[in-house]
Amino acid sequence: MFIQSLCFLCLRPFRTLETTPGVPMQFRKGLTSVQAHVDVPEGLFEEEYARNGFFGRTSHLYRSQPPVGWTDIDGDLRPEALRVLDLAGLGEGGYWKGRVAFLENEDVVISLTMLREAMPAYVRNADGDEVHFVHKGAGELETDFGPLNYEAGDYLVIPRGTVYRYTPSDTTSLLIVEAFSEVGIPDRGMLGRHALFDTDVIKTPDPAPREGGPFQLEIKRLGRITTVTYPFNPINTVGWKGDLTVWQLNLRDIRPVMSERYHLPPSAHSTWIMRNAVICSFLPRSLENGDPGAMKVPFFHSNIDFDEVLFYHDGEFFSRAGIEPGMVTFHAQGIHHGPHPKAIEAAKTKTFTNEKAVMIDTRNPLQLTEAGRSVAMADYWKSWM
């Protein structure tokens, strides 16, 4: 539910910060803190109840019991944890079939695939842009614009209509977000255009035409595959110019925003935006060590307007107990979300978080596919008990 208002308010990208129309109002009733996420009264639990992620109208509720202190959940809103590396058919039956979708809606499809050898055919997605995150592996990505050598921790943003092919030098696991809209970079607002990462760190390909033939090109359109055969290599670009191309960005080149005295909302870590969805990157960073009353773990919140998906890439996930690299958690709109009890206690002595994770938030509800359900952990929702 953490959508960057600078790019998502009113669903129009690259806007400046706006307020909800009408007269601003602020009420305060009963026992509360003065500053959100700081000096919560002893024995109480703060919940952020907000529209448009954390940028619309907001209230903070101070509860005597944590809102995730349930004893049973019966229904579709049960929090899920998925062992997506165990999905059946990863990388089997060709590239398109080997991309196994586990969550989807009308705006995005979230998949995982495993590449063990060079793809036999080139491919082109005519349905949408793609963001590939390299969880493991290394190799070469050939594209219309030229080749890129990839490694773990890379984002590879491939615009709709681009021809590409992977040649792994090491078995490669890819998290894929297929967006039925254009993928862009969020406006950083008052932080300035060089915050989080300077666009100069984004790598783009140099043309390198390939020879040989014949070659096949598999084009996906409306979910169906058309195969085109060429007597030559379709990667035959000798030069290009413009502002539409393939992007490569590694996690190490992202510099997270930090605050010593206030827990920032996850939208401060936005990396890519698209229609009705955002991708954020959580990276190693200092915790809120400048104020003993400041929260260090994510605050309890109601998923009102957005579904939240988190892919755990590497490190120690201090807000989650029992999570391993390569797992996914899914928390749907309509049910509370917040740190595990053990994480709250453990955070009291921590000064630094060493996690690396990719978060995908969607305005429209996601649905688990049958494949996704097959790798869901039955008792994950009990981990708050």
What is the multimeric organization of the chains shown? Answer: single chain
Low-confidence stretches: 1-20
Q: Please give the CATH architecture of the largest domain.
A: Sandwich
Judged by helices, strands and strand pairing, the structural class is mainly beta
| Average predicted confidence as pLDDT | 89
Main sheet overview: 11 strands, mixed
**Number of self-contained structural domains:** 2
By CATH, the topology of the largest domain is Jelly Rolls
Task: Provide an overview of this structure.
This protein is mainly β and 385 residues long. The chain folds into 2 domains: 5-80 and 255-384, Jelly Rolls; 85-251, Jelly Rolls. The protein contains 4 helices and 23 strands. Strands 4, 5, 6, 7, 8, 9, 10, 11, 12, 13 and 23 form an 11-stranded mixed beta sheet that branches. It is globular. It starts with a helix and ends in an 11-residue tail after the last helix. The model is unreliable at 1-20 (pLDDT under 50).
